[in-house]
Structure formats: structure tokens, C-alpha cells
Design goal:
This protein is an alpha+beta fold. It has helices at about 35-40, 100-115, 120-140, and strands spanning about 1-5, 25-30, 55, 80, 85-90, 90-95, 145-155, 160-165.
């Protein structure tokens, strides 16, 4: 099990350049092996779709020292889908291309501005860039094609995140 601390991350730290494509970043995708996420996340907006791009989602965590809001949001063990803002408990480390990365940033910026009340579009874009850079940096620390889970818990400094890593299995549409 690996533990990572959330820090300010430059988006360039998580990028590597590929001679063929010019852009290559690792990111996270939702994994759905069965309907368990549908069942446990039904009260909190539902489960992310299989293959949907997800971010770490630390920005959406409750004050875990005070407990969860009702209904239980499961923010301590889930990632957040960039488009639908639904959650998943298992994510796959995968390469993302530049257009998809930009779409994730735009979706998050809209969410931060329209739903979470960012004071300006610039502040929303900066927060979205930070969340995407953090997620790309996190994913870049793992080998490709592994699955990860997250466990958040209160710490003296706020919320700590620990990630467990699993070798991807050949199950359903998820190739070896």
C-alpha cells in the first residue's frame, strides 16, 4: 500500500512528451466489475460509468474528523468522475490524450464555478488545473494498467490519502 500526500503540483511535473503524439499523461478511469458501486453509491448520486475519466476527488471529501454528511457520501473511499461527478471505488491507471485531458479540466472548471461557487471563472480553471495535475501526478507514480483504490482518513494536517495498488485482472471487458 502506498501513501501520498496532497501537495501543490505543477501540471508540467506530470507530463511526459511522446515523439509520436507530443503529449502523454497518465490519468485515472473508473472501473466497474459488477453492480456493487451502483448499490453502495445509490444514495449519493450514483456510480460513475465504466471507463469514465475520474479525478482523485479530495476536493469533494467531507470533514472526516466531523463525520460524513447524510446520506453517507462514501468520499473516504471513492474517486469522482469529471463529467458526471458520480463516484467509483476502483480506478485504472491509463494514458490520456491532450484533448481528453482538456475536456476533463473544462468539465471540472464548470463544476467548480456553477455547482461549488468558485468566485470567478479564472479561480475555477485554476482549481480544475490543480485537481487534474494532482491526479496526473498521482497516476504517474504507478505503473500503467494497474487498478487502485483510495482510503482517506483525518490527520493532524487535514485529510490523508492512502492508495492500494492491484494488478489488473482479465475480467469482463477489462483486458489483461
Amino acid at each position: 500500500m502506498r501513501q501520498f500526500e496532497r501537495t501543490n503540483v505543477s501540471p508540467l511535473n506530470s507530463r511526459s512528451w511522446n515523439a509520436d503524439t507530443g503529449f502523454e499523461v497518465k490519468f485515472l478511469k473508473a472501473v466497474r466489475l459488477d453492480d456493487s458501486d451502483d448499490r453502495i453509491l445509490a444514495e449519493s448520486g450514483g456510480a460513475a460509468r465504466d471507463g469514465e475519466w475520474v479525478v482523485s476527488g479530495g476536493y469533494a471529501a467531507c470533514d472526516l474528523a466531523q463525520g460524513h454528511r447524510a446520506p453517507r457520501c462514501r468520499c473516504d473511499t471513492t474517486f469522482v468522475a469529471a463529467g458526471t461527478r458520480r463516484r467509483c471505488t476502483l480506478a485504472e491507471v491509463a494514458d490520456i490524450d491532450e484533448p481528453a485531458y482538456e475536456q476533463v479540466k473544462q468539465a471540472l472548471a464548470r463544476h467548480f464555478l456553477e455547482d461549488l461557487g468558485a468566485p470567478t471563472p479564472e479561480a475555477a480553471r485554476a482549481a480544475a488545473e490543480d485537481e487534474c495535475a494532482y491526479t496526473a501526478d498521482l497516476a504517474g507514480g504507478f505503473p500503467g494498467d494497474v487498478w487502485i483504490t483510495v482510503q482517506r482518513e483525518p490527520t493532524e494536517d487535514g485529510v490523508g490519502e492512502r492508495y492500494s495498488v492491484f494488478k489488473r485482472l482479465m475480467i469482463g471487458s477489462h483486458k489483461l
